[in-house]
Amino acid sequence: MRRPPAAPLSLALLLLLLGPAQVISQSCVWYGECGIASEDKRYNCAYEGPPIPLPKDGYDLVNELCPGLYFGNVSICCNVQQLQTLKNNLQLPLQFLSRCPSCFHNLISLFCELTCSPNQSEFLNVTQTEPYYDPVTSKNKTSITELQYYIGERFANAMYNACKDVEAPSSNVKALGLLCGKDAKDCNATNWIQYMFSKDNGQAPFNIIPIFSDIPIQKKIPMNNATKGCNESADDDTSPCSCQDCSLVCGPKPKPPPPPAPWLLFGLDAVYVIMWISYMGFLLVFFAVVFGVWCYRKRHFVSEYTPIDSNIAFSVNSRRDNGEASCGERFGAWFENGLRLTFTSWGAFCVRNPRPVVLFSLVFVVMCCSGLAYIKITTNPVDLWSSPSSQARKEKEYFDTHFGPFFRTEQLIIQAPNSKQEIYSPYPSGADETFGPPLTKEILHQVLDLQDAIENITASYDNETVMLKDICLAPLAPYNKNCTILSVLNYFQNSHSVLDHVAGDEFFVYADYHTHFLYCVRAPASLNDTSQLHDPCLGTFGGPVFPWLVLGGYDGDNYNNATALVITFPVNNYYNDTQKLMKALAWEKEFINFVRNYQNPNLTISFSAERSIEDEINRESDSDICTVVISYAVMFLYISIALGHIRSCRRFLVDSKISLGIAGILIVLSSVACSLGIFSYFGVPLTLIVIEVIPFLVLAVGVDNIFIIVQTFQRDERLQGETLDKQIGRILGNVAPSIFLSSFSETVAFFLGTLSTMPAVRTFSLFAGMAVFIDFLLQITCFVSLLGLDVKRQERNRLDILCCIKGDDDMSRVQHSESILFMFFRTVYSPYLLKDWMRPIVISLFVGILSFSLAVVHKIEIGLDQTLSMPDDSYVIDYFNHLSKYLHAGPPVYFVLEEGHNYSSLEGQNMVCGGMGCNNNSLVQQIFTSAEIDSYTRIGYAPSSWLDDYFDWIKPQSSCCRLYNTSGQFCNASVVDPSCVRCRSLTPEGKQRPQGEDFMKFLPMFLSDNPNPKCGKGGHAAYSSAVNLINNNSEVGATYFMTYHTVLKTSADFIDATKKARIIANNITETMGIKEKNYRVFPYSVFYVFYEQYLTIVDDTIFNLSVSLASIFSVTTVLLGFEVWAAVVVSITIAMIIANMFGVMWLWGISLNAVSLVNLVMSCGIAVEFCSHVTRAFTVSTKSSRVERAEEALSHMGSSVFSGITLTKFGGIVVLAFSKSQIFQIFYFRMYLAMVLLGASHGLIFLPVLLSYIGPPANKAKTQAAQERYKGTERERLLYF
């Protein structure tokens, strides 16, 4: 329906006030088109006269474009051809700005008034013309080649304010960044309008000079039409712009929550203060009790050297053996006696039958080791660090299945160390611009040569030649097979000639590569720059190249200051196609070799391929084999020599136990091999952590047991009438319960560790538990038999190793002997440590260390610096360092909406989209809001939204969606064919969003449409993989909305980004109301599978260590004959060792991650070895006081533990310090050294002192049984068992 004529009263009053009263008649300055401006662009014909009625065949066009002029007889200053040209020129702005109808309404008003207003002469002033002869009418005409357009400042500012927030969803930038010729933040009302009216933008046929004023100038009245704010409806059929496109609708910008305030007391860290006060309180109470007991003892005239817990001073042992043993004590004694008799009988059997036992052991080992034929070693980082049942792993599987796996990345970071900055001075005017060293033309040509050479790299796989073009990501294939190369050189179409393109004359250069670069970094999706070059910026692969992805080392948004170039070659990844994946791997191998050997003194290149990390981890493992072998060799040599007790040089080869030591070591290694073989049978894959850590653990456990058995035998004297088998059986009966206690505790602790969700911890626990258990079995069978054979060899005076040769001296039996270390422990160390004045010092010192460790435990960093996983000499370390130094964009993140959502309904669309009419808490809007507070959410940009771009693409006003009226097939916007008609009519219904069948009918066309100058919204390049069509393209399945994280440099950054993205996705799921349905929104980025573990690693650490301690406590309680208090003391000591390990981690800069958690779990096992033997010796001692029992336990077990674990491990650990692997240096050398030193200090210093204070009372039933058993024998003084 035509609108009645309208003459705003306010405008009339303004004119009356501003000048003398006069009647201004309607008048034109042009009508029709004349000469050719350039290619398909034409000038308008000069015409001074009244508006001319528009032919009726142009009514639909003027109603579509300029409905404000559609009234009366439609007398305007343009013809149908000019209206058609206007429509064509508005296509690009329409596609990007029509998502905000108010913005586009104002823009249309600007151009309609310019092109067709019947009052043109009021605000247009022709400044340049040229004659034109019209061959059709054979008339001379005048072409307008330049004019002035007087525009009201109020109008210009209002139009800009309505459009400044409009998003371009496919490009993650503001739409004005693509339409202003500048970065969106540098765009304003003035330079935007100037750019649109400049012929240099590639669209305007001639220059239109805007003059901004709100008052008349030189008799010209500026065009100052009424405008619509973005928070207003443009008409009755539309709504205000969305929050994403209009900040006025959103309200104030969201603010991130303030960081949590530090917990302080007295201005200091509260934990520090609490632990300091607790420690001071402990010292006060502890020394008060010690002093009180000392005073009480003095009052009773007791010698000051009498132990403070002796029977005189409130000893728990005051009930002497005269009293009756309790029921619990009798049961404990019965259990202890049962273990002793069992192992005694078994030891005697093994010594009497060495050949069957050894043969059976060998058969068992061979059977288990045969499983090694099925061994699988996992080097895939995803399998190493992420559980198949974890959330991130499931989400990765979902993403890979529905959208294809995330592409493989080959990346170069290039610097130009020998180049200097350049100053570019634009002509004829403009501020000087500084160009960084790598942005000189000479360097760019060299980099382009390198880029071309990489494109031409050839690899061979399965007799096929593989090049980059065969495996690269080509989003527009098969129409455009160019590879995606994210490089600054794609601004120049990867062409030397375009890079050299210059516009100028013999005197001046008006535009060159500097000009083009400065334009492209602000409008990367442009197909025509604003300079005289008119070269495209869009990459040859059909997509924009964002400057923050290809430039590094610049400040702010001054991309021209870049000090590094980043070139990325995305390569297709393959989910279930091994053949294609192997081709990609083959090409990557050649790529690595090529770049490593590339020589150019002007370029410094750091690089990485997708396979680089895995390759370097494998190389690291190979290079560390030598280090590990030397480490074990040192331990083997020590064990072989230290086991023997040489009484004289003449008997060195007789008394040495080199062969027994080697046999013991082989048993340890066999137990490891058996564990690997057994689980390989069942298809459990190995990890590098298992191979590197478990031999160390089992060697610690196994060697300790070997030393205890052998040294106990060496100190023992055969009883009268006792045979060798009975002697060894008796010794095994005494020590095997202790060995069984430690081994079984460790086994149970490790097997329970398999409850962990972390693959590295679970796999380690599984293999370690089995290895420790098999080692125990082999030691009480095979090793006992071999010990018997070795003793027989020694008694027969035969040489060690060369057992066929007999020595000079002949001895009928092996005499018992006490080593120097044992004598030192018994006569010097134990008495000195347990003196009354020393014990309080020890307790105070160790509790102080514990307090310090607890105070700093919350300061330990979480994560694993990726550079630590590489060898010292790896080329990837340089890449990682430059990555954090130069990169300005984080990894892409995809918010995936799972299959099940109904996109065809208006309600379903509003839940997701971000344009006009969409919910303020829609999926796209919430991600956009998150990007507004990027420092908190780690979301760097607004998301690309296929749904919003689809709505813009399908609008009937746009030329994007067209069909052949004959076949109904899709007709691309670049096709010139009269049979191509709009997909949807220009009726009010047609302008609404498509729903139901309409939605699905045109969506496949959108996803197959390539962007072109007439339609930049084609979805093929941007969204072909983002939408999963199902059921023969009749429904939309899973889809994603992509954005980027902010720059992430440290593990803490990656962990926080993972956590925040999940919070955002969960909130979207909640607000969409789909939580109860069978689908949800989840975030996916390629690094989530590696960093998810750190979201729960604190809980995992607490769980694993708690389970280990609980299992150790339970097993210790049972195997000590239900000595609950002894088990508590052991558990307390082990807990202190673990707590102190955390303190060492903080001091030595060791972060908490899967590797360090494995070591902490292993620390529990090593700690059991240091604590359990001494504790059991204490519980079975028959001495009268705790101090005497502690001294006896430390004397007899301390030397074996010290020589068996501490000295053995110390030599091997020192070698690890020389490893090239940073992981070995930090997580193995440092943690193993701390493990051994803390274990030894607690087990051999703190534990005996603690037992002397609060150890369990002697079990009277055990004491009576021992006295009865050894009454009248020389063994009465050796009751330590």
Automatic annotation (TrEMBL):
Family matches, as PROSITE patterns: PROKAR_LIPOPROTEIN, SSD
For this protein, what reaction is catalysed? cholesterol(in) = cholesterol(out)
UniProt-listed GO biological process terms:
cholesterol homeostasis; cholesterol metabolic process; cholesterol transport; intestinal cholesterol absorption
Q: Which Pfam families match?
A: NPC1_MLD, NPC1_N, Sterol-sensing
Gene Ontology MF: a single term = cholesterol binding
- What is the designated name of this protein? SSD domain-containing protein
Q: Where in the cell is it found?
A: Endomembrane system
Limits of the SSD domain: 624-789
Q: Which family does it belong to?
A: Belongs to the patched family.
Q: Which InterPro entries match?
A: HMGCR/SNAP/NPC1-like_SSD, NPC1-like, NPC1_MLD, NPC1_N, SSD
User: Does the keyword Lipid biosynthesis feature in the UniProt annotation?
Assistant: no
Check the UniProt entry and state the signal peptide residues, or none: 1-25
Q: What keywords are annotated for this sequence in UniProt? A: Cholesterol metabolism, Disulfide bond, Glycoprotein, Lipid metabolism, Lipid transport, Membrane, Signal, Steroid metabolism, Sterol metabolism, Transmembrane, Transmembrane helix, Transport
Q: Which residues cross the membrane?
A: 263-296, 357-375, 629-646, 658-682, 688-710, 731-752, 764-789, 1102-1122, 1128-1150, 1157-1178, 1198-1219, 1231-1254
Q: How does it sit in the membrane?
A: Multi-pass membrane protein
Gene3D superfamilies, sorted: Multidrug efflux transporter AcrB transmembrane domain
- Name the predominant localization: membrane
Its GO CC terms are: endomembrane system; plasma membrane
